[in-house]
Design a protein that fits this description.
alpha/beta; single chain; 6-stranded mixed beta sheet
Amino acid sequence: HTRLVFDLNSTLEHRIFTLENPDRLVIDLIDTQSRKSLTDIDLSATPIALVRSAVRNEKDLRVVFDLTRKIKPRSFIENGNGQSKQRLIIDLYDNEAQAQQTSTYIDTSFQEAKFENNNRDIVIVISPGHGGNDPGAIGVNRLQEKKVTLAISREVEQLINATPGYRAVMARDADYYIGLRERVEFAHRHSADLFLAIHADAHSNGGAQGATIYALSQRGATSEQAKLLAEKENSSDLIGGAGSVTLNDKDAVLASVLIDLSMTATVATSLEIGDTLINSLGTTIKMRRKNVEQAAFVELKSAGIPSLLIESGYVTNAAD
C-alpha cells in the first residue's frame, strides 16, 4: 500500500472521502494552510497520478489526489511525544481485505461499507420542513413552504420506494408540526442510513432562484459533540445510525473519541452524497450553489447518520 504523511504543527481536524468517474481521493484539512508545495512529490510506483490543492471556505485546505485506480483509504492522527509533532497518516490500500487485515483504527468510511455489505433495504428518512402552525416561508400568491416541502417529499418517497433495495420513511406525512430534535430522533428510531430534510427558500428579491444543498458545518459538529458528551449519561444518546452504540456505559475519554470519529465520518459521507446530488440535480434544475454548503442546522446534527438539508428552490420565485 501507499502511505501519505502530513507533518502538523498543531491539532488538526480532517475529512477524507473518495470520488469516482474519475477516481479521486479528497482530503479536507480544517483551518489549515500548506507550508510546502505539494507538486514536488515523487509519485512513481503509487496509485496517484496528480496532486492538487486549493483553499476552501476561505480557511480550509482541500487536497485532491487524482488516482490511476480505485483505492481504499484509511486515516488516523499519530500523536507526537516529547519533541515530535502530530502527523496525519493516510494509507491507500488496493483492496478492502488488505485494509481490514492491517487496520487497527476505526474506518472513517464505515457508512459506505455498511451499504455494500448489508442485505437489508437502505432506509432513507425524508423530513418535510415545517408543518402545522409553522408554515415556513411565504411565497408568491401566499404559497406556504410547508405545503411545498410535503408535496416534494411525497414524490421523493415514491421514487425511492420504487427502487429495489431502498425504503423511504416520512418524518411527517401530513400537515402537523414536529420539532427539529424529534426529527433527528425519528431517524435514529428507524435505523436510517440517510436523512434528507426538504425545505424551500424565500428572499425579498423575487428574482432569487435555484436550489442549495447543505451538510453540517464543523462548528455544528463540534457543538453536537459537546452536547452528546455532556449528556452521555442519558442512554438515548446513541451514535452510529443503524449500528447504534450507546454512550451511557463509556467513560468520558472513550465517549469523546467515539463521538469525534462518528461525526467526522458522518460529515464526510454527507459531503460526498451532497456532491452526487448536485451533479444529478444540476442536469434538471437551476442550482444556486455549485458546491455543498455547510451550516449548523439542528436537523443535520446526527452523530452517525449522513444528513443533508435541501433548499429545493424559492417560494418567492414563480418560476421555481
